[in-house]
Amino acid sequence: MQPLLETRDLHVTFVTDECTTQVVRGIDLTVGSGEIIGLVGESGSGKSVTCMAAMGLLDDNARLNGEIRWNGKPLDSQDDAAMSVVRGNALAMIFQDPMSALNPVQTIGKQLCEAIRLHSTTRPGRKALKQRAIDLLRDVGVPAPEERLKAYPHQLSGGLNQRMVIAMMLAGNPSLLIADEPTTALDVTVQAQIIDLLRSLRDERGMSIILVTHDLGVVAQICDRVLVMYCGRVVESGTATTLFRHPRHPYTQGLLASLPRIDSNDDALTPIPGVVPQSHELGEGCAFAPRCSHAASSCYSSSPDLQSNDGAQLFSCFFPLPVHENREHR
Question: Which residues on neighbouring strands pair with residue 227, listed in sequence order?
């Protein structure tokens, strides 16, 4: 099937008077209809920048190379006129801090009605706008939606504000929703509610979702496929089930080993040594080599391409982990 969104060898570079910084280095991403794709990795891996490039939300100093396609047709995300047709109506994005996406001096109802009006092909009246806003709030599980329309963002909890933002993004009936850390700063109970909401949007509307997160527990619950990113590149990808059971890249294994386990009495976690290097610190070799216990001299001289043994799971490593070594992550 034709993917909804596709990037081919996407590179993103930021140019300033002081330096040129390459943040995304050759990302291939496909999102099919009804899929939930997870982008995972530490902060600075290029996850959010990849999504913002597809949405056309990067600053003017960003330079894009490669292809971005929507329904098989090239999409110039740096062309504001072209993106105004797609953004909101086909592609929508919610951010990790709902308070920064909402205007603190306007009521929820006014902001939601404005989003509905912008994406409407007709000119709905005030009564129709209000009813549509109530319906959207009800769709995202907001209790007493008529009363919530009168509230200001600061009068609502973080979870309710996140639902408000999701309702605004649904105003244009998009085919693909990009959720950038939608559960950050929310308590565990509210996180579960937001994840259930995203899953129901996929099931009821057939909506595709790109979930940007560092929470592997969330990924395991909701994602069909996962792309593990490190220093602007995909180092491993595959189905969520396969990747969790049989990680082939040492970085993926390190992320999984950093998770607390409920079936162990050991309180100590196993962190990945070192930190994510800055873009100007990257050499010719594998970016993960300085932190990898499996690295050899070849890892520092050249960067491995994505490879696969079965076609379903891709990994970028000269010394991939044998499958039998990874049963502990089941």
Answer: 39, 237
